[in-house]
Specification:
alpha/beta, Trp Operon Repressor, Chain A, 2 domains, 3-stranded mixed β-sheet, 8 strands, elongated, binds adenine
Amino acid sequence: MKFDILTLFPELFAGVFETSIIGRAVERGFVEITLHNIRDHALGKHRVTDDTPYGGGGGMIMKPDPIFYAVEALLDIEIPATGYAPFLAQGYPPIILLTPQGRVFQQAIARDMLQHERLILICGRYEGMDERVRQYLVTDEMSIGDYVLSGGEIPAMVLVDTLTRLIPGVLGDTQATAKDSHSSGLLEYPHYTRPYEFKGHTPPDILLSGHHANLEVWRRQESLRRTQSRRPDLLEQVELSEQDQQFLAGLVDDVPPGG
Ligand code: ADE
C-alpha cells in the first residue's frame, strides 16, 4: 500500500515511520510512504502557504493553490475547475483531509480503506483550510476524535499505523489483529506474562490450566465483561450469542476502568 502525505512539516514523521512495525513494513515493501512538503509547491520568493481570511476574523488560513499543485505534481494531472471527483471515479487514489470536522476514524473504516492501493493524506495546519480544498479536491475528511490537535500530522500517523498493521503479513501472527480490541467489536480480554508472581499477584489459574476450550470461554467472557463495563455502547453493534447474552445478564456491578 502506498501513502502520499502532504504536510508543511515532513520532519515530524521521521521517528514514527522508521521504527518498529511501520519501519519494518516499509523495509519489507508492504508499505511505501512518501512525504511531500506543501511549501515546495507554493508560489513566489517566500513560498507563502497561508494567508488572512477574507472577511476578517483573525487567524491564518491555508491557501488552496500549493495544496492543489502538490497533488497535481504527484499524480501528474491537471485538476479542472469542476474538481478532482472524476479522477477518483477513474481509479485515482482517494484524497483524505485530516481535520476535526471529518467523520471519526474507526477500525471498520481502516479495514475499508485497505481496499485502496494508494491514499493521499493532507495534513491541515493553522486555523483552517480554504474551503475550495474541501469542495474540489478532497474526497473524504477524517477526524481521529473530538479534540483539536495543532495539525493533521499526528492524525495522519494514526491512520497510517492503523492501516499498516492490518496489511496481511505485516504482523507475523495473522491472528494478532483479529483479536485486537475493536476488531471483533469488543475490547480485548486481559493478558498476563512472566513473572508468575509479581508483588504478591498471580495470573488467573485458567491461564495455566492448559484447558483450551475453557480458556476460550474465559477470554470471551472477559472481553464481554470489559466491554460492558468500559464501553457498553459497543455491545449494541456486535452479534452476541445466546451464551454471551446470558453471561452479560448475570454481570452485576463490574469493576470500573482501571480496577
Ligand atoms: N487536526 C486537528 N485536530 C484533528 C483531529 N482531531 N483529527 C484529525 N485532524 C485534526
